[in-house]
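Allow me, if you will, to draw on your knowledge of protein folds for a short while. A protein sequence and the structure tokens that stand for its backbone fold form the material at issue. I would ask you to consider whether the tokens describe a fold that such a sequence might reasonably adopt. Thank you for your consideration; the sequence and its tokens are set out here:
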Amino acid sequence: MAVIRSDTRIFPWSQEQTRLHVLEVLGRPCLGYRYVDTESDARTAIITTRIKPHLWPLMLSTQFTIELEQLSDSCVVRVSTRSQPYISGDVFDFYDKYIRHFLTALQDVIHSSA
């Protein structure tokens, strides 16, 4: 069994602009972890990466998926995390924190470029 978390937000950009902002956020350093093995498929509007903790070398990486969907003048961003298969709980709330930190960083990028 794996731990799966997700959240959805709407941003006031086109799908392609949002994709570029997402890639910008994924390229930034984070406190305690980094994004690795990032792949972006503009055709399907899905970006996948792994969250790799670097302060805790024995912690396992986490699958992180971002799906983009164009609405009329905005873009829906669906973010999800999936733990390794044999993790059955999230005592320290890591998976929700990863999502919150990512969405906050994406919001900050969008506000700073407006």
